[in-house]
Amino acid sequence: MKNMTFRKSLTAAAVAASLGFPALAIAQDAQTDVNAEEEVERIQVTGSRISRTDMETSSPVSVFDSEDILNSGVGTVSEFLRYTTVSGPGGNTESASLTQVAGSGSVDAKGFGSSYTLVLLNGRRLPVNAIASDFVDLNQIPLAAVERIEYLGDGASAIYGSDAVAGVVNVITKKDFQGADFNVSYGAGTEHGDGDEVNAQLVVGTQSADTSILFALDYWERRPIKASDREIGSTAYLPNVPNGDGRSPYGLPGWYEVYRDNNGDFLFDQPDEYYNLFADEACPERDIVGGSGGDEYCYYDFAPLYQIQPASDRQSIYTTINHKLTADLNAYGEFRYSRAYTKTSNAPAPGFINVAGSPYALDFLQNNLPQEALDTLLTTNGAGDTVIRDDVAFGMGRRWVDFPNRQKDNTNTTFSGIVGLNGYWGSYDWDFHVGHTKLVNRQIGAGGQLLLAGVEGAIADGGINPFEFNDFSDREGQELLNSLQASTHRTGESTQSFAGFTIGGVTGVELPGGNLGFAAGVDWRRESFTDRSDPATSDGQVIGGAGSNGEGARSVNAFYTEVAAPLFDGFELKGALRRDRIDWTGGDASKTTYQLGATYNINESYMVRASYGTGFKAPDLHQLFLGQSFGVTEAVDFTYCENVGIPADECPSRQLNSRSGGNTELEPEESKSWNVGLVAQPFENFDLTVDYWSLEVENIVGTLGIQEIINNEEQYPELVNRVNGRLFGVGDEAYILTNLQNLTEESAKGVSIDMNYLQEFGDFGVINWGLRADTQLEHLRQSSATQPLCDDIGTTSEPEWKANLSADWQNGAHSAGAHVRYLGTTDDYVGGRVSGSCGFQNDAIPVDSYTELDVYYGFQFAENQSIKVGLRNLTDENPPISTLGGWPFYDQGLYSNIGRFMYARYSVQF
C-alpha cells in the first residue's frame, strides 16, 4: 500500500535493486535517465486528466501494486479490496449466501453504498450489473492483467461525471510487457479441507520497433462451503445470544391458520384452549414460538441446508495492441471477455398455501383441534359425510423440505472492445477512442422452484400430503416431483457504447511557479439495460420466488476542462469544471460540477493540500425504469377516518391500494466534498499522509412506507391519490404511490492515515513497513425522510476504526511477510431507533472487534522460477457475531468465514 511521489518510489526502487529483488511496481511506469538528475516522465494520476511527475495531488490517491495483490494471497479484485480499508460493509457479495447478484463483487467506499463509488478500467467506465443496476461487478476484470489499483478518496464528478461521489477505483492493466509469465496456485481451508481455490494466470507480451501486443488469460475456481461445516452460520438459533433467533417460521412440521374465506374474519375469539393460528402437534417444544394474540408458529432451523460460500469459476481473456503509425501518432485496441459462473443452493422453498381441499385435511383437523373448534369448522354433506365447511379457509405455512434445494445457475458474461488513436500535437498529448461493452447476467433455475398451482393441484388430488414428509424416491414420485418444478429464468443485459476525446499538457504560459497545465475533452455514451424474469416468477406463481422486469436507456453528453496553475514556487492551484447532460425516456437532467484544489510544498519534506468539489449521482436505470407493480398493504387511514367522523382510536386497519416501481421523474442526487491533508517525508525512506475528509449527499433516492406516507400526507400530497376520499373499495385509481422518490440525505466525516517505511538491514535485506488506517468521526443517516439525521458510527457494520498493517521482508531470493487486518468494535441495536428520535428502543448488543493475521514466504529457486506459500487467517479467527441482520449472524460484506486458509503458488517467467 503505497502513497508516494515518484521520486520517493525511485529511491526505494534503487535500494531494492541493490539487494537483488525487483523494484517496487509503482516505479515501473517511470522512466529514468542515466544522468544523476533521475528525470521522471509525466504520468496521469487518477483524479486528474493532466499528466504530471508527482503522485501527490490536491486529492489523496492510494496505490496498490501487483505485489500488494500477490502478497495478499487472494484470487479476485473484489476480494482484495475487501481486505483493504477502502471497502465498507456493502462492498462484497461474491460469497454472500442470500443475494440476487451471486458471483458479483463490488466496492463500497466510506459506507455510502457501492453505487456511490465509480469503478474504472484504465480510466474508462465499466457496465453496471444488469440485475442490480447500481454497481460495477469487479469480477469482470481479469486479475492476471492488473498492474495496479488506484483509489481516489475524494469526490471527482468534475473529472469523471456521475457516481464519482465517495471515491474512484481505477484498475490499471499491464502495458509494454515482453516475455511470458505463468503462475498457478492452489489453496483450501485447513480444518475441513473445503473451499478449495485453483487459480491459473498467463501473461504473454511481445514488442517490435512499432508494435506491442499483450495477452492475459485468467482461470479461477472455488468450491462450496456448507454452512453446517462452520461454527458461525451452522445454525440459525443461538439461544444464549441476544436476538439470536434467526429461524424461519416456515418448516416441517408447519403451522396452520383457519378463517372464513368469504370475508376474512377469524372463526374464534382466541379462547385458551385453541387458536386461529396454531403449530403442528409434532413441532418440538423449543421450536414453538408465540405470535400475537396467543397464536403460535413452528420455527425451523434452515441453516444446515444453506451454503456459506457457493461454488464459482471464472475465465477471463484480455488483450491489447499498440501500433506506432508515425513518430507522433499511435493506434491501439483493447479487448476483453470474461465469464463468471456461480452455482447457488438455498434451502427448499417456504410458503403459505391453502390446504382445505386436501383429502388429508379432515383427519388432520379432527386429530389436532378440540371438539368446540371442530363444531365451528365442520358440517355434513348430502350423503351425511363430515366435511370442512365451504366458507372456511384452512391455510398452512410450511417449508417444502421434501423437495430439492432451490438451485440456480448464475452466469455473468462480459465483452468489451475499444479502439482509438493517441499522439502528440506540439507539446500536447491527445486521445480519441470509441468502444462498446456488454454485460449479460443470466439466472437459470436448476431445481427446487415449485409452481404454486401445481402444488395446490397435487395437494387437492392427494398426490402430496402437506401434513407430513413426502417420499418421492420411487419412479412415480420422481415424475410427480419433476412435474411440479418450474423452469425459471431471469436475464439482464447492460450495454454501453461510448466515445471520447481529450487533449492536455503543459502550455507555454509561464507563471511564477512554472508553466500552466491544462486538459479539456468531451465524452459521449449511451447506456441501456433490460431485466426480464419468466412469467410464472413475475406473476408470483413460484413458491418462495421473486422476479423483476424493467427496460430503459439513457444518453450522456459531457464536456470538461481542467487547469493546474503553479502560482508561485511550491504552490499549485487546480481547477476542474464539467457539464453533463443526461437524457432518458420521460426525463432528463443537466448538472454542472466543479472542483478546486491546492497544494503547497512547505519544503522538500512537507506538503499540505486541500480540495473542495461538488458532485452528483444520476438515477440509475433500474430506479428510472423498474416495472410498476400494484398491490394492497395493511395500514390505518387516519385521514379518511377524520373526514368521516371516526375517532382515531377506533380507526380500523384496512387493505389499502398501493403502486410501486421506478420513477422517470427522479432527479440526480447531489454532493459536496472537501479534503485537507498533510504529505510528509520527515526522513529518508519514510513517508506519511494524513487526510481529513467530509462528504454530504442530498436528494438521495428512496421509498416511504404506506403508513408513513399517510401519517405525513400534508408533506407528501403527490404520493396519495384518493377517489371520493378513499384508498380502498373504489378500484385501482385510488392508491398510495410508494415508488422511488428523492427523499433523504447522508453525510460523513473521517480521517485517513497512510504510512510507509523502507528499513534497511544490510546483508539481512530490507523490510517495507506499511500502515493504512481509516476512522470515521461521524456518519449521519436518516432511516426515512420523516426521521432525523442520526450518527451511525459504532453501530452495526460501521466500526470507528479500520486498519491494515503490513511488513514485507526481502533478501535476495527470499521473501516473507505478515499482514494484519483490524476492524473495530460496534454495537447492535435491536428494534432500531425510537421514531422521531436518535435514541434506540433497546440496549446495545456489543459486537467484538476483528483481527486477522496473514503470513507468507517466497523463494526464487531459479532465475525465472519462484514459489510462494501462505496462510490467510493464521489464528483461525471467526467473524464477530452480529445478530441484527439475522442469519448467518455476521456481515458477509466485511468478513470471510473460510477460517484458516493455506495456499501455494508457483510462478515461471520466459
From TrEMBL:
Keywords: Cell outer membrane, Membrane, Receptor, Signal, TonB box, Transmembrane, Transmembrane beta strand, Transport
Keyword Cell division: no
Cross-referenced InterPro entries: Beta-barrel_TonB, Beta-barrel_TonB_sf, Plug_dom, Plug_dom_sf, TonB-dep_rcpt-like
Subcellular location: Cell outer membrane
Signal peptide residue numbers: 1-27
TonB-dependent receptor-like beta-barrel domain segment(s): 388-874
Chain intervals for the UniProt region annotation (Disordered): 652-671
Coiled coil ranges: none
Residues of the TonB-dependent receptor plug domain: 55-168
Protein origin, superkingdom: Bacteria
Compositionally skewed regions (Polar residues) per UniProt: 654-663
Family: Belongs to the TonB-dependent receptor family.
Protein name as annotated: TonB-dependent receptor
Source organism per UniProt: Idiomarina rhizosphaerae
